[in-house]
Amino acid sequence: MNRFLLTNLLCLTILLFAPTGCFNQQKDFSHNQLTELEKYTDHPDSLQAALNLFSDKEKENGFLDYLYMKAYANIGDYHRMDSMYHIASDKFKKLHNRFMQFDTEFNYASSLNGAQQFNKAHIVLLNLLKEIKKYKAEIPENVRREFATLTNMTLYEMAYNQLSRNCLNEASNTVSHAKSELAVAKDTSLLIEAYNLSGLIYKRMAQLDKAIDDYQHALELVTELGNNHQARIILNNIASLYTELEENDKALRIAREMVNRFPERDTTSIGDKIYHLTELNTIGVLLSNANLNKNAIDTFRVALHQMSEKIPAGLKLLIYSNYAKSLAAEAKTDSAIYYYQKALQFKKETRHEFNKANLDYLYGSLLFHKTDSLKQAKYYLQEAIDFYRLHPSRVLSKALYSLAELENKLNPSSQKAYKLMQEAFDSEQKLMQQDFQNKLSRFEVKFKTKEKELKIIELNRKSEKERAANHIRIIIFIASLLLISTLVAVLLYYLRKNKIIYTLNQQSLQEKIARKDLESKLLMNETNQRLTEQYINGLEDSNKRTAKTLHDGICNQLLTIEMILNHKEEKCLQKQISQIREEVRTLSHELSYPDFKNVRLSQVVNSYVSNLQKAHIFEINCFIDEKIDEVLLDNDQHLEAYRIIQESVGNIIKHADAKHIYLTLRKEENVIDITIEDDGKGFSKETCHDGIGMRTMKERIGLIKGNIEIDSTLGKGTIVHFWFPCTCYNKEK
Q1: Contact at 8 Å (CB) between 277 and 303?
Q2: Is 624 a residue whose pLDDT tops 60?
Q3: Which CATH number fits domain 166-264: 1.25.40.10, 3.20.10.10, 3.20.20.150, 1.10.10.10?
Q4: Fold type of domain 618-728
Q5: Rg (alpha carbons) of the chain, rounded to whole number
Q6: pLDDT given at position 538
Q7: What is the pTM assigned to this prediction?
Q8: Among the four 147, 192, 571, 723, which has the fewest Cβ within 10 Å?
Q9: How far apart are alpha carbons 238 and 212 in whole angstroms?
Q10: Which residues of 341-353 are buried (b: 16+ CB within 10 A; e: fewer)?
């Protein structure tokens, strides 16, 4: 769905009908002027032509900067968009124009989502929702409807952001809240978007029945409005969902309805071209699933002919990948490999992880079955498996079976093939159980609906009782047949898989017997070697800990002192010297860790940020989730997390030339998630090698069983993202 479809309309409404008081604005613009201005925001060069609509005084009220922000966002110049956002926002704050301030922040966050800068957008949206709540009581009566629309759109945008960051439970809760508010406000257009987004969230959560219900609800609403464009989009989503359920006939029927039911639209705009290509891709996939591969190939060729450079990389990857799959089904292996490789060119440019993983599986499977490139096939199959282990899908068991066959072909005596086969078997069992539950759930809904209808008939037409009873018996009979057939299928599956497992077990047993004698001979040598290694490793660990403490603790404190000296903040200097003295004293007591028993991570980080802010070198924005204090962290977790934050900020100060730092600490279920982002000069991953700082950060996160990702782009800053497990507790205890 087009998330920005209602944004421009809302902006225009706000500009025309803004209230008085603290939400006051200049009333220097006519309706015709504002309508004219909205036409120029497609491109900054076009907006230059509208400058004559502004007087010198009007150019200082923030509206022109606001329009430039939107124009730069439309062409993907996010660096200049950032600059115009800060200028416009500051002007609206000075004029106490809360309405335009909030609208500017909303559009900025939406653009960040569109640029896939989800962490940064999340911080902006969180602050915006807090500000909206804070000033809600001051909203004048004549603008409450427009303000409610902005609030609901912000909730929708937050749900989309949470979905993009794979925070599915949070996304589900947020979009449910948005649906309730939109239903009360009777905002049907945005409610349709919310139901469509909710369907997508449930689909990602594998709650397919709920996804279908939300898509159907959205379709009912859009049919009432008569919006053919939105109806086609929702039907496309429903068809994709039925494809996921492997109900290909139903999916193909809906796709044909999508094409035949609604008249063709103009595809001159880039947005309409994207929707049209998405529809063609869906129809091509459905034709392929129905074994109509020649028709599918023709459909994909039409899509390829209509593609241009402005089409998103994710959609290009999808069309090339599905086209290659259809070619492979027609035994056109060379052509299929060519288009799979075309799809791989867009892999780094998109964050659609599921589509990337599916591409890896399809390409790896083709290489394994149709070529001799076994090592290359193994690489792509492993890439797909690594992703699907974290995000369960039907593809996982297929990829595991293929990799098991490949491993057995490379090394027939290897136990790895057996383990992969066992994992594939377990994965397929879980999917079968889930499918069975989904079928039972859908049948239960149908049964209850039919039962209610029969009760009404019984009350009004007693003569039809026997017929109703027969109807129920037929339904029960069908349900019984469904259950029996499912059980038979499961039994046959077990028999087939057990035969494979038995064969692999026999191979494994022979290998174990051969290894037993060798292991007994090496046991004594291994024991002696292990004792020696333990002693050496103990010395190495001690040295590493000393180096990390000196580097991450004292060195970063000295850097802060250097910064404070440059700005003559003597009080801060005194405090920093005291902190260094404490760390040196701690280091002298056998390099023991700071004691975090009586202080929380949030307190330490806030203190650290406060000291940095006093230097006035850059702006540091810190957001700490309140849920952080609801977790139990041991001393090591506190220390290592704090040191990583120190090292990251220290690197920004030394190398980044940044003006802004964004520090976010969140709790996601049983995980602490921390992000440090800057708008500095960044660095190239190809030319940059890990120094002691990066190495120690990776070692530290490993000590607390966490993970770390460092992403940087020249001219666009750096993002350090790390997370580690934690234990929740009840505050009331």
Answers
A1: yes
A2: yes
A3: 1.25.40.10
A4: Heat Shock Protein 90 (3.30.565)
A5: 30
A6: 45
A7: 0.46
A8: 571
A9: 7
A10: ebbbebbeebebe
